[in-house]
Design brief:
two-stranded antiparallel sheet, 10 helices, 233 residues, 2 domains, Arc Repressor Mutant, subunit A
Length: 233
């Protein structure tokens, strides 16, 4: 479930612009911290100013753009402190999502989750322990688990808001992960807890999984490798 996507079958001009701008922000084509100029966006993307304003309002709601009085709109800035805050929030919310997923996911959904991991395992970078990069949406393990929680508020907070920031960090600071193999194994253990319908275990394992990634980032900070941030898994 992605509530940022229009429910109608045909996307509107605002829908299309929102997703284009969102993608350009996430990949860094529109730089973090840069000021947003509505007139310039209107010319660049060949849409009306009202369409730009509505798309920007959605980006503000998605926490990718901020507005301040007398200062206009800016793309959010990335910082190590902000990244660590995201990890703390993810640890709590994704742990809860796993507990609910163990209760609410159907046998078919669990089987699809297991199949997803099998597909991930075919990736050569993961097999070599170099990286564990997942595509957006239903191809992402964490996204699938949160959807499986069947809790609309959790889905909105994580899938519609927080995960866009996570992908922004990954794109702009690197995706090579020394934890690739460990992260994949941890995913397998989480799924087994869900198969067993053990919500308490699933929550504990997910919290440990997120915490391990955060600790990895902190270690890199302590060792002076701040700029690379090659611990995002």
């Amino acid at each position: 479930m992605d509530t940022s996507i229009a429910t109608s079958s045909a996307p509107t001009a605002v829908d299309t612009l929102f997703h284009r701008l969102r993608g350009d922000i996430i990949c860094g084509q529109i730089a973090a911290g840069s000021k947003i100029n509505e007139a310039e966006l209107s010319r660049q993307y060949k849409v009306g100013r009202s369409t730009v304003r509505e798309a920007l309002a959605r980006l503000v709601s998605a926490c990718l753009v901020s507005r301040k009085a007398n200062a206009g709109a800016r793309v959010i800035e990335l910082s190590l402190h902000g990244l660590l805050e995201i990890y703390h929030v993810r640890e709590a919310l994704e742990g809860m999502a796993c507990r609910l997923a163990a209760q609410n996911m159907s046998a078919h959904e669990i089987a699809e989750l297991q199949q997803l991991l099998e597909e991930h395992m075919q990736n050569s970078e993961l097999q070599e322990g170099r990286a564990y990069y997942q595509k957006e949406g239903d191809l992402d393990f964490h996204y699938r688990l949160v959807k499986g929680s069947a809790n609309r508020e959790l889905i909105h907070l994580l899938c519609d808001e927080l995960y866009a920031k996570v992908r922004m960090y990954r794109y702009q600071f690197g995706m090579v992960s020394p934890r690739a193999s460990d992260a994949f194994t941890e995913h397998r253990h989480i799924v087994q807890a869900i198969v067993d319908r053990d919500g308490e275990m699933a929550e504990m394992l997910m919290r440990r999984h997120i915490r391990a990634s955060r600790i990895n980032v902190e270690r890199q900070m302590d060792s002076g490798l701040d700029a690379s941030l090659k611990a995002l898994s």
